[in-house]
Amino acid sequence: MNQNYTTAFNVEQSPDEVFAAINNVRGWWSEDIEGKTDELGEFKHHYQDIHRCTIAITELIPGKKVVWHVIDNYFNFVVDKSEWKDTDIIFEITEKDGTTEVRFTHVGLVPSYECYSVCSDSWGTYINGSLRSLITEGKGQPNQSERIANKHGLENS
């Protein structure tokens, strides 16, 4: 059984509009990003001292697919600091009955991971909430980390 975290939604917008929104990472995930997110290469994300990661964009197929490879990752709330390292984050864009399906899969983010509940909850918020809003309304809600961290009791007091 495939245990990788995955989620999907459909929108009215075109595959090209969806592709552009996915690559506008600051518009839906985090404004704390260093580097370009719309071309092959690396970018870095960080949220306080709770989460840092370095991501390589390894595949960009306009209107179809975006693939990220997590080169390095750090969470301050898990014992195994290598969680996420060498995992792949895949966005697949497919036209279906006049709508565009966005399928997000974090290959390697599995239920046995200590961060699984926090990470899957976070991705759900960012993908189904923020990214979807960016696509459909032109505005996402990046930097939801604080709300998610508070919900899971991760905030430093």
TrEMBL record:
Residues 148-157 have a biased composition (Basic and acidic residues). Residues 137-157 are annotated as: Disordered. SUPFAM superfamilies: Bet v1-like. Signal peptide: none annotated. CDD domains: SRPBCC_CalC_Aha1-like (cd07814). It comes from the Bacteria. This is SRPBCC domain-containing protein. It comes from Paenibacillus anseongense.
